[in-house]
Amino acid sequence: MNHFLDIHTTDAAELRAIIDSAAAMKQARQGRHKGEPDDQQPLKGRMVALIFEKPSTRTRVSFDVGVRQMGGQTMVLSGSEMQLGHGETIADTARVLSRYVDLIMLRTFDESVIQEMAEYASVPVINGLTNRTHPCQIMADVLTFEEHRGPIAGKKVVWAGDGNNVCASFLQAAGQFGFDFTFTGPQTLDPEDAWVRFARDKGSEVRIMRDPAAAVEGADLVVTDTWVSMHDSQSTKERRHNQLRPYQVNEALMAVARPDALFMHCLPAHREDEVTSAVMDGPHSVIWDEAENRLHAQKAIMRWCLGV
Ligand code: CP
Ligand code: NVA
């Protein structure tokens, strides 16, 4: 069964095939309105459950639109409205859902929930973000980089800020797609060692640097994300803001990167905190393409999951 749970657990050649398929499907839709179906309807007759235990704008809408463009149908469910939030086990939920739907996308808190869903479901399960990783986002980010700058292999990606779930999937992608990765942020918010080791074992050069300007030097891509994630306690907000302020991505920091460097942010962004509006709306930024590419990347992921 092709579950799409994480970048490091998906074969590198399969990841490459998914990116190529996404690019081809995007190309084939040029000039079409969003509601127009694709020429091919590989999800015709398929039902997809999109389950959210956390808020979402991009993941929710891009999966829903993507399924419909490919001829399938969706139901968008919130975890709290399901028995999932009221004591029914994940395993039992997985068994029941598998009798109704052909594919499950789940955004949740602890990654054990998605792992258990995948273990007991008899249909593919896609990780739509956990506290620990966000693989669909990074597939869209790789697609976006390559659209603008060609192969990402051998490039230098710099992550500034919190070594969070999105950073984790980026590090895994460094190993799988063969690019170098520098993290710059305070030591207490370093990415997990496991992901650093994974990328290094695959041959990527991974650096952890405390000085943001030195880290960004020569970067092909600068990435950041919110300083406080959905699973973080709001009580940490003030301390994190103080710790992370030196790692704000602003014009001065972007000036140290390569002149043709790109800037990415998975969004939602907190303007003037982790990134300034001047960078978000400036010449390096590809954030809107990045958001659009969630749609194309996830369509390719769903096709891969279903083998259609
Ligand atoms: N980037 C991302 O996953 O956005 P949403 O939280 O809006 O889905
Ligand atoms: N790190 C963020 C990503 C949101 C898409 C969070 O988990 O809240």
Automatic annotation (TrEMBL):
InterPro entries: Asp/Orn_carbamoyltranf_P-bd, Asp/Orn_carbamoylTrfase, Asp/Orn_carbamoylTrfase_sf, Asp_carbamoyltransf_Asp/Orn-bd, Orn/put_carbamltrans, OTCase_ArgI. Carbamoyl phosphate binds at S56, T57, R58, T59, Q83, R107, H134, P135, C136, Q137, C266, L267, R294. Residues 154-304 form the Aspartate/ornithine carbamoyltransferase Asp/Orn-binding domain. GO terms for cellular component: cytoplasm. Residues 3-147 form the Aspartate/ornithine carbamoyltransferase carbamoyl-P binding domain. PROSITE patterns: CARBAMOYLTRANSFERASE. Its EC number is 2.1.3.3. Gene3D superfamilies: Aspartate/ornithine carbamoyltransferase (3.40.50.1370). Coiled coil: none annotated. Keywords: Cytoplasm, Transferase. Pathway: Amino-acid biosynthesis; L-arginine biosynthesis; L-arginine from L-ornithine and carbamoyl phosphate: step 1/3. SUPFAM superfamilies: Aspartate/ornithine carbamoyltransferase. One of its GO terms (molecular function) is amino acid binding. L-ornithine binds at N165, D225, S229, M230. Pfam families: OTCace (PF00185), OTCace_N (PF02729). It catalyses: carbamoyl phosphate + L-ornithine = L-citrulline + phosphate + H(+). One of its GO terms (biological process) is L-arginine biosynthetic process via ornithine. It is found in: Cytoplasm. Belongs to the aspartate/ornithine carbamoyltransferase superfamily. OTCase family. Reversibly catalyzes the transfer of the carbamoyl group from carbamoyl phosphate (CP) to the N(epsilon) atom of ornithine (ORN) to produce L-citrulline. This is Ornithine carbamoyltransferase. It comes from Pararhodobacter aggregans. The lineage of its organism: Bacteria, Pseudomonadati, Pseudomonadota, Alphaproteobacteria, Rhodobacterales. The gene is argF.
